[in-house]
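Appendix C. Worked example: isochorismate synthase
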Amino acid sequence: MPTLMPVTTTHLGEHLPLLDLLPNEQPLAWIRGGEGLVGWGIHATTTVSGPHRFADARLWWQKQLEGFAVSNSVHGSGTGPLLFTSFSFSPDEPSVLVIPQVIVGMKGGKSWITWIGSASQPVLNSEPAVFTSNPVSWIDDSNADADWKRRVTDSVQRIHDGVLDKVVLARDFSGTAQSHIDARSILKKLAAEYPSTWSFSVSGLVGATPELLLRLSRKMVTSRVLAGTISKTGDDERDLALAASLARSSKDLEEHEYAVRSVAQALEPFCTSTNIPESPYVLHLANVMHLATDVTGALAEKLAHVDSFSILEQLHPSAAVCGTPRSLATELIKEIEGLSRGRYAGPVGWIDAAGDGELGIALRCGEINDRTVRIFAGCGIVAGSNPEKELAESEAKLVPMRTALK
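Step 2, the predicted output written as structure tokens:
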């Protein structure tokens, strides 16, 4: 019999500054409000693509797990060996799977460490890294705004013609820094400025998403749906009035309803019951406000082998990042969007050995390649969309990454 690789998880017990633990080399992170998971070192990595990429990812993960001898004194979701994942938006592009050599997690003030191999427990370095200024110079395309507004106008016309109900259009901007872009610097800025979002880093994709696509833990599933956005002014009284107008906006409520419906329909086959609030709430972030709905459900006991991969396969792409109907929106995106989304708007997060996990939609993010970076923003287009307002919304959604890259 082949020798199994030891995997050890043990308590650390103390409150740790997770992002300060990360080395510069390919940091992995999933953090919200100071809690979550960080990882470094690569035990194994692969890419998957094609229409069966979620099933292929599961098979690869399970094969890796078969080679482990796990000793876990902590237990619970997120402990033991973990898979960090960053799936592409389109099945035609590669999705990245990474098993870290070392993982440190924290939840409820309690922390733990997992490491792979027979070596003794790794020593943690919690000295904060010092970052020098490394601003990005953005490539200026004088036609970009006009081109994107034309795409919005075209999409609205298709919707009025009855071709589809909603489509999500994305745009991107590329830039170059003077030296290697350090994902840790971006993570720390995003986590400090947007603590209620999930800050993430997986294989060069770095961002802070407000949208939780899937949390699966002990047979309970949760998905936070965001659709419908308005920019904040910084004036509290004015922003309260804007929040009220967002909650009453027929255009934004229509966009939101499509997104909630698509998530609820995807979860329904897996659940004995689902809870869908009658109306959304307004989620306040530092720069924008969103209409938000948290959809929850209890997995059916009779269904065997339901895990995060199974549910992701049905959830992605939701109407929040694609449109309604899904197939028609996908075709329109291919026809008129004019860019490769890569892993933008795909599921990103982690999955554990039990198949539980926490994955967001990769929004408010950028893809780093040494000194270059590409950042993204997308807007949901419905019958009432106005090209100028959608342009302004896309600019607001680019602010977190633009600011973090200064």
